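Quiz preparation item.
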């Protein structure tokens, strides 16, 4: 790590210039250490879901990762975690509840998988105070329209609890990724507070269209617009005006700590879109503050 705590000075200068009290990052990863080590090992192997070299920029122990986020001025963040098979989600939710108890600046995060009992443990997580859920269609390899999940979507829509969903086909397509399955889900549950991770890359335009059609759909910026992803799946310049029009429904996400560049680069990538300081203030703080009432 560099002398300025992994880029702290650049991050702080960014939000200070905007007159913000700090940042709210809706897409950060904290999970049980044995699970995180396996995730890192997968990135290290350039596995088929990444398909490219992916060095982890913030490969530190949990306490140091927390200290880094706080030094950056990240006021609230999440503990995005997800199962890749049945039988994991309830255990992960138990860990995440404990993490949120001991880390009060983390928005209590939970997850699910299409399996028997999913409605019960999701209801238990909501009752225990879960503020946001993570759904990963690529890693979980499940259809969001699986009948086992139908009561879950209804429960979350009714409770108004947002779901961050990795549903775009980047960095590599999955069996159930892409806008079509999500469109069918939203047609049945139009009030679902869905946050499309990674701006829906590479199907940016199609997921922007879903946000335009459904007022409760939002998108997070995770890895979008960065040099790393622009080389691989560039955001269409012609759609920048749509980003401006949806400025109240785009949220800062970074994928910390699992990013191959400094945290500040995500912020500078947003800044160079040249959509204005009001847009940046909304994306980096105000929209999430309003959504989560935090």
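Solution:
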């Amino acid at each position: 790590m560099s002398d300025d705590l992994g880029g702290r000075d650049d991050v702080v200068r960014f939000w200070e210039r905007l007159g913000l009290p700090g940042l709210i990052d809706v897409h950060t990863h904290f999970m049980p250490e044995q699970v995180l080590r396996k995730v890192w090992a997968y990135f290290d192997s350039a596995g088929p879901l990444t398909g490219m070299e992916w060095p982890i920029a913030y490969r530190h122990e949990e306490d140091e990762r927390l200290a880094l986020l706080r030094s950056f001025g990240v006021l609230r963040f999440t503990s995005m975690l997800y199962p890749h098979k049945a039988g994991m989600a309830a255990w992960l939710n138990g860990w995440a509840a404990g993490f949120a108890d001991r880390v009060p600046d983390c928005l209590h995060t939970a997850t699910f998988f299409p399996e028997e009992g999913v409605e019960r443990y999701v209801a238990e997580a909501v009752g225990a105070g879960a503020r946001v859920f993570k759904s990963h269609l690529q890693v979980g390899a499940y259809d969001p329209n699986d009948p086992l999940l139908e009561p879950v979507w209804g429960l979350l829509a009714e409770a108004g609890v947002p779901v961050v969903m990795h549903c775009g086909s980047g960095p590599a397509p999955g069996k159930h990724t892409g806008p079509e399955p999500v469109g069918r889900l939203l047609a049945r549950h139009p009030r679902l507070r869905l946050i499309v991770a990674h701006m829906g890359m590479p199907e940016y335009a199609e997921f922007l269209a879903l946000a335009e059609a459904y007022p409760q759909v939002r998108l997070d910026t995770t890895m979008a617009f960065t040099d790393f992803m622009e080389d691989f799946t560039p955001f269409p310049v012609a759609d920048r005006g749509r980003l401006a029009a949806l400025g109240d429904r785009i949220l800062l996400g970074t994928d910390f700590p699992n990013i191959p560049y400094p945290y500040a680069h995500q912020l500078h990538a947003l800044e160079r879109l040249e959509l204005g300081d009001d847009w940046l203030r909304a994306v980096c703080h105000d929209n999430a503050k309003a959504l989560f009432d935090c």
